[in-house]
Amino acid sequence: MERIVFHRQIYRIWFIRIVAILLFTIMHLPIKAEARLAPDSLYRQLETAEGKERVLVLQALVANLKIVDSVEAYRYFYDAIELAEDLNLNFDLKNSFESIRIKASPQRSVARYKKIIDELRGKKYPRQIGFAYSFIGREYLNLNNYDSSEYYQNKALSIFTKTNCEEGKALALDRMGQVFLIKNQFLDALKYYYQALQVNQLNGFERDAAGSLYHIGLAQLYLGNYHQAVDFIIKSLGYWEKVNNRPNTWNCNELIGNIYIQSGDFQRALQFQRIALAIRQKHIRIATEAGITNLRVNYLGIAYSYNNIAEVYLHTDQLDSAYYYALHSYQIKTDEGSVASVRDVANSELNLGDIYFALGNTDSAYHLVNAAAEKYKSLQNWSDYSMALYSLGKIELSLKKPLPARQHFFEGLEHARQVQSKQSILEGYKVLSKMYLENKDLEKAYDYYVKYAMIKDSIFNREKSDAIEEIQIRYEVDKKTAQIEDQELVIGQKQRHIKTAIIVGVIVTVLLVLLIVFIIKTKRQKEALLTKEAENLRQDLELKNRELVCNVSNIYTKNLVINKVAKSLQRSSANFKQSNMELVQEIISELRQNLDETSWHEFEYRFARVHESFYETLDAQFPDLAPAERKVCAMLKLNMSSKEIAAITMVRPESVDTARSRIRKKLGIDKDENLSAFLNRI
Questions:
Q1: The pLDDT of residue 21
Q2: Closest of 88, 98, 76, 97 to residue 52, by C-alpha
Q3: Cβ-Cβ contacts under 8 Å for 59 (sequence gap 6 or more)
Q4: What is the residue-wise DSSP string for 319-335?
Q5: Which of 382, 385, 383, 404 lies closest to 393, judged by CA?
Q6: What gap in Å lies between CA 666 and CA 622, rounded to an integer?
Q7: Which of 363, 371, 427, 523 has the most CB atoms in a 10 Å sphere around its CB?
Q8: Is 75 within 8 Å of 52 (Cβ atoms)?
Q9: In the chain, what are the helix, strand and coil shares in percent, each to the nearest 5?
Q10: pLDDT digits (tens, 9 = 90+) for 57-107
């Protein structure tokens, strides 16, 4: 019995092993097939690609393989950075480091970049290590490790400065600005952003310069310098609209909207926020139609717009609309799979909490605002943290808790002063003035109101000077720019441009004059030719009309002869035999019946060839005309008189005048209008 059980256990173990192997194979086969399916076309391109194109193909392979086959990804990555280094393609060198980054995992990205640095040590490519340091610093910033981020950006900046890598230098300066911006050290952030802008503009890096303009505007917003902020953002927006870059276009519109929120112009604020929302929605629609499904970042952008619109409605006391947009923003940011950062969620919590407080729901308001404050504190975001503390203090005042409210107000003001955020300081003075006023402490209420008014005046009055530190930073940057530029070279270039413009202008003027003369001469030649052709046509028509008149005269002559013959036969008929009388009478009758029909048909044929559409138009417009009247019309068109017509038709002139009168009535012509002239127009 024990042996049977033993064998069953062995069979069970082997059965489990076989099933496990099959499951492992089934689970991994689709992954490998999918991993190799995407880059197949890239492998084919790689066989023939050269230069910059080859670098781009290698980057695409790295991006496709970095998750499913890291060994292959590293191999193509090193090929890409080596080729970019050899070709001195610094932007592509930077983009190669971007291609191996794992966006969803900053920790894994840091580990990858450190591994790359270990591999590159001892080689003659310091710029590659510089880019690796900068990307490590960026990932530490995403991990909210500001000290490490600043440390690695400084190391990168040092390498780029020594190697004269302007692209890398601008990148590290910009990222240093981001570190200090997130730390709410706005003046330090501006210092680095201005330096990055200087490098980008001097080297013609338009795209990166537009990014620097945007970041400067953002820092100016936090400092409360709204006019300067709008100026920089609009300059950035102009570039992004020119290159049709939707993400940066909506970012600029959104930031301008935020500036107008802070400055109190809520109508314009709502206008720009809705522009940003519309661009984001259009971007999602286009991406969806193209079959793109991973749009979490784009939906996060929708949440940003919703939250900003909610803030506008809150300031304008449209609380129902404010609640609608704020709630939808919060739901998007907290949904499963959302890519919202801690700060993103905190922003929605603070906004929604303020709306709940305005609606009278203090419990929900306190819960959300307190959660936002904790998040801001963990991020060391003292500017937003101070605003959250002010909101907590307002709620506590409404709950008759003056001591914790006072504590939160003063703590918030201290942090606002620490980071020199004018808007946060302004709000702090405002809530303290209101608190002391409610406590009947009029002296302190007045004192804080005066401080509030002074800060408000410094923010909203363009005549006031900005912070001394910010002026010094701009002055130093301008001074360095002036030292770098070679004034003589600039003047020489301008002079050459002016001379070239003058020469080109003279040449263009001469060519224009010659062209005008040629056009006038050609026009005159064409007019002379057309005049000559018209004269020839007129003479030809007159000749043909004369021929027609002659033809009519011939008809008249023939008719006379025929009539004479008929009369002669008639007079001589008495001398004919009785047997021939019948034949003679028949001939006379036929001659008189067809007196002019044959010749007249010939005339009409010729007349129709000269005046092609006369009969057709005449019959169409005046179908009541009799055949004899049609004949008279034809002769009148040839400008024949009544006497001439009477002679040809062998009737009296009075009969022709009568016919003309009937024709006038049928044609509807007044007595004063010339009948021949009317017919000549047909």
A1: 42
A2: 88
A3: 80, 92, 95, 96, 99
A4: HHHHHHHHHHHHHHHHS
A5: 404
A6: 7
A7: 427
A8: no
A9: 85, 0, 15
A10: 999 999 999 888 889 999 999 999 999 988 989 889 999 999 999 988 899
Helix (H) or strand (E) holding 313: helix 296-315
Question: What is the signed CA dihedral for 433, 438, 440, 444, rounded to 10 degrees?
Answer: -10
How many secondary structure helices (H) and strands (E) does the chain include? 31, 0
Half-sphere exposure of 5 (CA within 13 A, CB side): 2
Q: Which residues of the chain are under the pLDDT cut of 70?
A: 1-39, 458-492, 540-546, 549, 551-556, 559-560, 563, 573-581, 584, 591-600, 602
Q: Which residues contact 252 (CB under 8 A, 6 or more apart)?
A: 214, 233, 234, 236, 237, 240
| Angle subtended at Cα 85 by Cα 80 and Cα 90, rounded to the nearest 5 degrees | 95
What are phi and psi for residue 589, nearest 5 degrees?
-60, -45
Reported as a single tens digit per residue, the pLDDT across 20-67 is 444 334 333 433 333 344 467 888 888 889 999 999 999 999 999 988
Contact criterion met (CB below 8 Å) for 247 and 214: no
Residues across the chain: 682
Q: What tokens appear for 254 in the block?
A: 């959104």
Tokens for 472, please give them: 């010094």
pTM strictly above 0.70: no
Residues 455 and 428: beta-carbon distance below 8 Å: no
Q: Answer yes or no: are the C-beta atoms of 290 and 304 closer than 8 Å.
A: no
- Residue 184 burial (CB < 10 Å; 0-12/13-18/19+)? buried
Tokens, residue 331 = 């739901």
**Contact present, 80 and 99 (Cβ < 8 Å):** yes
Only one residue has tokens 């009519």, namely: 552
The Cα angle at residue 368 between residues 366 and 371, in degrees rounded to 5? 105
